[in-house]
Write a structure and sequence with these properties.
The protein is of the alpha/beta class. Strand 10 and strand 11 form a beta hairpin.
Length: 352
């Protein structure tokens, strides 16, 4: 009977945009303007996560539109398109880029790297331990995968409908199974004799939903890049991202395109500003975490080494949507895209 009514449906791996307005989606299903350009246009593809999707921005003020506006105001002839979905890592971004190149051209691919969560977004096979996604992995330093393609049934989906029904209400942990093959995570101290920073603990006690999507036992959290010494799991995640970025660069090059990484230094774990992580020992639920901004910078230097990259500071205040939402607001996106346009201007030919 379950097979006849096709219930429950197989769990699908991956996602694109969660935006609820179909009119704001282009041909590949992401939020952004329609992918249409002329032969004389210089085509840029902006690849990333929710910062690229920019749900806090009006459709006409998305990052793609502001970058396009500022480049064209400099005498260029540019079209910019978005491949960005919430909480996507470079794994899903790579698959989206390959899908894009099956139908369209891109002269420059820019990956908007989010230092807060991109590492763990790639390391684990799900977003929140219940939403599966295509995932790559390393074997002897070589990139393998993905587990499945975006939009396909997840690899572990059982054929038996009764088992599917059981998992619908008693889902198993894909992350737990995956973690058996990952290197060890950061090991916090169980005791510490010295001054400690209680910010995380106090915020958790005052707001129970604080850190609700973060797991400090598995390095699946936005602060893992600050923990020192670097854990074997974070090292694995950084190496995995380098391989994924290399594959994205090779994909662009094979289609005659340039490639670059871009970062806007603004996030809940930014190195400056309100809510910044500072050097010292943090306490959280009876465990002590050694935090170092130097380690954070070392991790990012390792990650971007050998790639063309741009770092654009966020200079407007306020820069974020709100105290609990670190996404850039319209004003910050406008400033960042204006400065990025200045940085990449020389790589774009003048209007023919």
């Amino acid at each position: 009977m379950l097979r006849i009514v096709n219930y429950p449906k197989p769990v699908i791996s991956g996602w694109k945009t969660l935006n609820s307005y179909p009119s704001e989606r282009h041909q590949l299903g992401f939020r952004g303007q329609p992918i249409e350009f002329d032969n004389d246009d210089f085509v840029i593809v902006l690849v990333g996560d929710s910062q690229v999707e920019a749900k806090a921005c009006a459709y006409g003020w998305m990052p793609e539109r502001r970058l396009e506006f500022y480049l064209n105001s400099k005498g260029k002839r540019v079209k910019v398109f978005s491949l960005g979905g919430p909480a996507t890592g470079q794994d899903q971004q790579l698959l989206s880029l390959k899908e894009y190149y099956q139908k369209f051209r891109a002269d420059l691919v820019i990956v908007w790297f989010n230092s807060a969560n991109d590492v763990w977004n790639n390391t684990f096979p799900s977003n929140d331990d219940r939403t599966p996604k295509p995932t790559f992995w390393l074997e002897d330093g070589q990139l393998m995968g993905p587990t499945e393609m975006t939009g396909q049934p997840m690899r572990e989906t059982p054929r038996l409908k009764l088992t599917q029904l059981w998992r619908k209400y008693r889902p198993y942990s894909r992350d737990k199974e995956w973690a058996k093959f990952l290197p060890s995570p950061y090991a916090p101290m169980t005791s510490f004799n010295g001054p400690v920073i209680e910010e995380w603990q106090k915020r958790l006690e005052s707001s129970p939903l604080y850190l609700r999507y973060e797991n400090f036992d598995t390095d699946k959290n936005d602060r893992a890049l600050f923990f020192t010494p670097r854990s074997p799991r974070v090292q694995y995640g950084l190496a995995l991202i380098r391989k994924l970025i290399q594959e994205m660069e090779n994909t662009a090059a094979s289609h005659g395109g340039q490639f670059a990484i871009f970062r806007a230094e603004n996030s809940p774990s930014a190195t400056s500003g309100k809510g910044a992580v500072q050097d010292g020992v943090y306490i959280l639920n009876g465990k002590f975490y050694q935090v170092s901004t130097g380690q954070y910078k070392e991790n990012l230097d390792y990650l971007t080494r050998g790639f063309s990259s741009y770092l654009v500071p966020v200079t407007v205040e306020p820069a974020t949507v709100g105290p609990e939402d670190a996404h850039l607001n319209e004003h910050a996106n406008d400033q960042v895209m204006k400065d990025l346009a200045t940085a990449i201007e020389s790589a774009i030919p003048a209007r023919r």
